[in-house]
Structures are given as C-alpha cells and as structure tokens.
Amino acid sequence: MSGAPLTELLEVSVRDAASKHVLDAIGNTSLVELRHVVPPDSARVVVKLESANPTGSMKDRMARTMVERAAADGRLPPGGTVVEYTAGTTGISLAFVCAALGYKTHFVFSDAFSDEKRYTMRAYGAEITDVQSDEGKITEQLIKTMIATAGEISRRPGHWWADQLNNHDGEAGYQALGEEIWHQTGGRVDAFVHAVSTAHSIHGTARALRRHKPDITVVAVEPAESAALSGKPSGSHKIEGIGIGFIPPLWKPDEVEEISTVATAEAKVMARRLAREEAIFAGPSSGANVVASLRVAERLGPRATVVTIIVDSGLRYLTTDVFRT
C-alpha cells in the first residue's frame, strides 16, 4: 500500500469512513460558547450541541444503550418490538436505533406533544397509540396514563418495554457525554446545569464529570408550574420532554446541589433568543437549560465556566407556539 497512488489511498480512506454503522454517528457533538445572551461579568456559558446527533437529540445516546443491552441479555428477542411511553424525543431515538438494528417499535404518545415528533416516529416505522390530553397540557395524570398504557401493550408476545423511568441502563448512555464535556472544556467546568425528565442524563453526565472534579456544582432544572423536585404541587406546563409531574423513580437528590425552576414562558422566549442571537436552533427544554445557566453564571462570576445541554433541535417545534411569533 505504501507505493499506491494518492488517489488509491484516498479511495480506501473514503471507503473506510463510509463503512461505519449509522449508530456510530451518535455522540462527539460540538461544544460552543454563548456569545450574546450572557450578560457582562457573568461566567462563561458553553453548550453541548446534542441537536447534532443523528435524530437531532441527546436521547440517541440513551436509546442505543438501552436497546443494545436488552438485546444482549435476551430481554429483547430477535425481531421483537420495543414499547415505550414518550413525549416524542425518546420515541424518535428508539425508533431510529430499532430501525438500524432490525427491531419494531410501538409508542404511547399524546396530542400534548408536537406533530413533528409524531411524524418522525412514524417515518422510522413506529406504531403509535394515542392518549388524549387535557387541552394540550402536560400533567402528572397524562404521563401516568401513558405509562399504564405502555405497560398493557408490553404484555403482548415478543414485546419488550423499555420503561425509561425505571431502566437503569439509561444513565449509562450519558457517561460518554460527561467525558466529552470534560475533554472539550480542557477540564474547565465549575457547574453543570440540566433539565430533568427521567433523570438519566443529569445523573449520568454529572457522574462522569465528578470522576474528574468531585466538587463540581450540579444544578437540576424543572418547570416552575410543576416543580415536583422542589417539593411543590404538581401542575401543568408546556416545556416538552421535562417535568413529568412527580418524582422520577431513579432521581438521586443527593447528587444535585440545587434545583432551579423555569417558567414555560421563560423557556420559550430563550429558545427564540438562541435562534436569533446565537444561531442555535433549539427547543424549549434547551431554553430552560440556558435560562437556569445564566442565573448560575451571574452568581459564579467571570472566572468560572458553566456547561449546559442543547437537548434537541428546534425543527421539532415548528408547529407549536414556540416559534410562531
């Protein structure tokens, strides 16, 4: 090969690069610094662009880990069907992974979540069962009805329930995210701020970061209208993908230093600002992450670095009121 022409070497290199499995495109996303929405004299705020994953979401990481582990230990039979209740983001990622690995999917969804998510899950071949919401509100009752429906469907032959709220494999999917953040920041991370749904992503990422810096500050984010983690009453909100209205079974309060609440309106305004001022197109949960990060950044001052996550792409919310202004 050493005497081969340059064109031959390039052809081999291109073939090798193209032979990677589509799932290998998950991860190694960019980390960028926010330049315009951060006030003067605040800490540096950097965001991990998880919207650059194959489906446009950080949940690709969790989905791959859960499906591959379930297949490896026999919980998911060959050619079987993965069942899950979902606000859409996890469903899209599971549908993507299952399409790549030859499994079927059946998701419990609701009209409380964007049409883009429904269409994307269907594009990957998913079957969808709907649970009607109360005028599009995300509530504890809605989530629990979706969970119960998924449990019923999972009892069918050849079906495996991913059950993200109780599946410990989900956290392992985010260990690499923490490692990437540590290396991309050159070890300059003073605080990690992130919204909570199942709690897998905040705990898995923080655990990896703490292996390098045990005293890092970890801040959880939840909707102000349904601040269950903060001990307040469950309510309704419209920040898709977070704030399930009750304490997630795998939530570990001892691994978080503080909880920051963000109102739906604040999250949506910040999502719009990120697009217009930072050229970062993201959904409302990412907006909530940034709102909470700016609070932490102001408190820590200009010598510190705050890291948060751009959870998914704004393309998933074009038919919602987030961007119809």
UniProtKB/TrEMBL annotation:
Residue stretches making up the Tryptophan synthase beta chain-like PALP domain: 23-311
Enzyme Commission number(s): 2.5.1.47
Catalytic activity field: O-acetyl-L-serine + hydrogen sulfide = L-cysteine + acetate
Primary enzyme class: transferase
Gene Ontology MF: a single term: cysteine synthase activity
Keyword terms of this UniProt record: Amino-acid biosynthesis, Cysteine biosynthesis, Pyridoxal phosphate, Transferase
Cofactor(s) needed for function: pyridoxal 5'-phosphate
GO biological process: cysteine biosynthetic process from serine
Family of this protein: Belongs to the cysteine synthase/cystathionine beta-synthase family.
Name of the protein this chain belongs to: cysteine synthase
Species name: Candidatus Segetimicrobium genomatis
Lineage: Bacteria, Bacillati, Candidatus Sysuimicrobiota, Candidatus Sysuimicrobiia, Candidatus Sysuimicrobiales
